[in-house]
dTDP-glucose 4,6-dehydratase (Clostridium simiarum), 353 residues
Amino acid sequence: MKTYLVTGGAGFIGSNFVLYMLKKYQDIRIINLDKLTYAGNLENLEEVKHNKNHIFVNGDICDKELIEDLFQKYDFDYVVNFAAESHVDRSIKEPEIFAKTNIIGTVNLLNVAKESWETQDSWKEGKKFLQVSTDEVYGSLGDTGFFTETTPLDPHSPYSSSKTSADLMVKAYYDTFKMPINITRCSNNYGPFQFPEKLIPLLINNCLNHKDIPVYGDGLNVRDWLYVEDHCKAIDMVIREGRLGEVYNVGGHNERTNIAIVKTVIDYLNKNVDSAITEDLIKYVEDRKGHDRRYGIDPTKIKEELGWYPETVFEEGIVKTIKWYLDNKEWMEHITSGDYQNYYKNMYGHEIS
Ligand code: NAD
Ligand code: TDX
């Protein structure tokens, strides 16, 4: 039975990953370590609250003693590091916490994994540290071209700079110590359980409440959208089959301007939910500082080496996503009313340490 340390598994992608893995494999054990910041939500994990192969631990990846205790207790085969401060706008206002969690937290995990996995002249068999990174480390594209794994790193925001720093530390542990690692860099994810500070859930929520939709700048910035389950599938593949020390880009030629995303969601809700939801809700607002213009991933490496491809086309994924938010209005209400963490505080009872 393989044992995973999944960090940040109460957040958006982490919780989708935990649910995906526990559905797919009956013979794995996941220790889910999450600090439960504003972005962590135990309600995302309700489906696995009685699953014996899932153990939730409330804690910080910067806490060396705690991580050492967990390694001692569970002898992890894999670490999958999702835990991060993840929102660019927050990083512009409050960069310190991004440096702390995203850089220091990652180094702390690397150090403890190294202590536990390194032997006198090599590494214990079958171990791997997977760092979940982002395409934002490559900076911004012009109208043409795509990010490949060899595109020079050129981050602009405090968020992407902290993720780049973490990537470089992970790479350094491979280059210096031959620690078994992989790094995945994916594009913008969308799907269930995304915190409504990010464009798509914010947009859906504002439409349903007839609130203005803030579109930054001219609305023509481009993002390459990936359905979250396709990302989870990619991570599972890289853990099992990724060549040690390699970086894999994850994305799927699914580029859209922000304004096109906004209009697609409005159009669906207008036709299917409420004809009062119209483009009148769109409000162009001041641009994000240092706003990257375009992201676009070239996924050739992961396709050719591991056979991964994004199965969900955007037209299908966005409808699935909108329907999920329509069917889970309580999930959103618990967040917007501010009591989501209290609401589910006792869900895991004694399992929270
Ligand atoms: P999220 O903000 O929804 O979740 C982050 C989770 O990490 C939360 O549950 C939070 O409580 C936890 N956390 C924060 N600080 C912690 C700490 N110090 N110790 C332990 N837990 C902590 O983020 P997300 O969108 O799910 O992103 C997950 C990862 O994927 C991040 O590393 C992010 O950089 C990366 N990523 C995200 C996207 C995207 O589109 N969302 C795209 C590319 C890469
Ligand atoms: O209200 C908004 N209006 C708007 O125009 C918000 C929240 C965003 N935007 C724009 C900014 C971006 O161009 O929409 C685009 C998407 O914004 P976000 O959802 O904040 O995502 P982004 O900044 O692209 O970063 C996301 O993808 C890469 C994740 O938050 C990162 O964690 C990930 O690394």
